[in-house]
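Re-running ATP-binding protein to confirm reproducibility after the cluster update. Everything else is unchanged from the original entry.
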Amino acid sequence: MNYKIKTGNVISDAIINEKYNIAKMNNIEFICNFIVPDKITLDSVDLCVILSNCLDNAIEACMKIEDETINKKITINSYIHDLYLLIEVSNTSTNKLQYKNNKIISTKKNKNSHGIGISNIETIVKKYNGILDIISGKNKFILNIMLKVKNN
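Result of re-run:
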């Protein structure tokens, strides 16, 4: 495959390049500094779930922006720190998060078939003894994920 973005991992290459192309078709700036290091204990399916859900949500949030003066942008970064893989996905967003029982809920009409993305990410974060941090500010949404991917 001839991908524009290369991360060092076949799964993340496929997902990130697909989302990159969708973003570009929708005039969304896409910046990627995402690398998957060798010798980490991260299941490919788990990586797929995290990247797909994060980037789908980011693209959707950018596409909802109607104000032409707001720059639509998605940034995805990864870092290794000690035993942990840190993933940061940030995007432009003008929507306020909605919560119910301290959980983010979907703003889509059919809530039964939507809104499970963040829950899936939370499940994976717990599996890897990690931390999920969500920051929402003026025209910005940031998802920080920390996963333990190396043994002591």
